[in-house]
Design goal:
With 335 residues, this protein is mainly beta. It has a domain of 180 residues: Alpha-Beta Horseshoe (Leucine-rich repeat, LRR (right-handed beta-alpha superhelix)). The strands form six sheets. A ten-stranded parallel beta sheet has the order 2-4-6-8-10-12-13-15-17-19, with no helix packed on it. It has a four-stranded parallel beta sheet with strand order 14-16-18-20, with no helix packed on it. Strands 1-3 form a two-stranded parallel ribbon. It starts with 8 loop residues before the first strand and ends in a 14-residue tail after the last strand. Pfam families: LRR_8.
């Protein structure tokens, strides 16, 4: 079902009371579709796909939606939703894709998220959600995409949770107010991790060289933090990632003399370290290069059922089909 663009209107609650056999409901890209999301949608017990993205819905997410045990995909992105994510969401035991991005949701993340054991993609980005991540999320063994950027998480890097999600391919935590060092070995078990974004936080300390041991890591953004010391990543790793490695905007980072080639040292954007006796790991010659431009926006394409995400400061084009069960990013088009 696709709603036509029209003047401001609301969904009448009675519309869904006699549609129990409906399996897919897609009402997207209708800015004039306003009001609250009807709680009567919970009567659609056969529903597998519910997409209400890019509309003008406001108010809270109805807790009654937690009764949709057969639901596999829920997309409420790009609305004006407020309030907290309801604990009842844990009743969606078949859910594989959850997209609540670009709303004004607030409060903490509910522990009930850990009940979504079929979840493969969680996009909660661009809201007002606070940390910490509930420990129950460590049980999401099928999760591949965790996108939390532009939320005031305000904790240390959630190593205990993220480090337990062995199937993760993409982690986006840009602009989350993360503090402290990047724990050594925090991501060591994530053999499938292809893209890690921790830019625009308040992380300090050195860059763990252990990140280079991740066999599939192809994009790493640590820019615009407070990281310090000599960049100790292996030259082979730096050469392989090229400009997909971004550590700019960390004024206390420096490059060891002779560690990298001239081109590599240039795009790392850090000055050479001080010579022996001049202070170990201290940068020489001022601060790093100008701040990297942030691409925090996300745009919906005109192509039916597709969206292009710009993951803050790192991911240029992650594309997924709204009705697909697995969301595979086209890494060749990212950045």
């Amino acid at each position: 079902m696709q709603a036509a663009a029209a003047a401001a209107a609301e969904l009448p609650p009675a519309l869904f009371t006699n549609a129990s056999s409906l399996e897919q409901l897609v009402l997207k890209s209708n800015p004039g579709l306003t009001g609250r999301i009807p709680a009567t949608l919970s009567d659609l017990r056969s529903l597998r796909v519910l997409s209400l993205s890019q509309n003008g819905f406001r108010g809270e997410i109805p807790p009654e939606l937690g009764r949709l045990a057969a639901l596999q995909q829920l997309d409420l992105s790009y609305n004006n939703l407020t309030g907290e994510i309801p604990e009842e969401i844990g009743g969606m035991e078949s859910l594989s894709i959850l997209d609540l991005s670009w709303n004004s949701l607030a409060g903490g993340l509910p522990a009930a998220l850990g009940s979504l054991r079929m979840l493969e993609k969680a996009d909660l980005s661009h809201n007002e959600l606070a940390g910490p991540l509930p420990a129950s999320m460590a049980g999401l063994g099928k999760l591949q995409y965790l996108l939390l950027q532009e939320n005031p998480i305000g904790t240390a890097v959630p190593a205990a949770v993220v480090g337990s999600l062995r199937r993760l391919q993409v982690v986006g935590m840009s602009g989350c107010g993360l503090t402290g060092p990047i724990p050594r070995g925090a991501f060591a078990a994530l053999a499938s991790l292809a893209a890690l974004s921790l830019d625009r936080n308040r992380l300090d300390g050195p860059i763990p060289a252990s990140l280079a041991a991740l066999p599939r890591l192809g994009r790493l953004n640590l820019s615009q933090n407070r990281l310090a010391g000599e960049i100790a990543l292996p030259a082979e790793f730096v050469a392989r990632l090229g400009r997909r490695l971004d550590v700019r905007g960390n004024d206390e980072l420096c490059v060891g003399r002779g560690r990298y080639g001239g081109a590599q040292a240039s795009y790392l954007g850090a000055p050479p370290c001080a010579a022996a006796g001049g202070g170990s790991g201290a940068a020489v010659g001022g601060t790093s290069s100008s701040p990297v431009e942030s691409s925090a926006g996300a745009a919906a394409t005109a192509g039916r059922g597709f969206r292009v995400y710009g993951i803050a400061g790192m991911f240029g084009g992650m594309v997924y089909h709204l009705l697909m069960l697995s969301c595979i990013p086209f890494y060749d088009t990212m950045f």
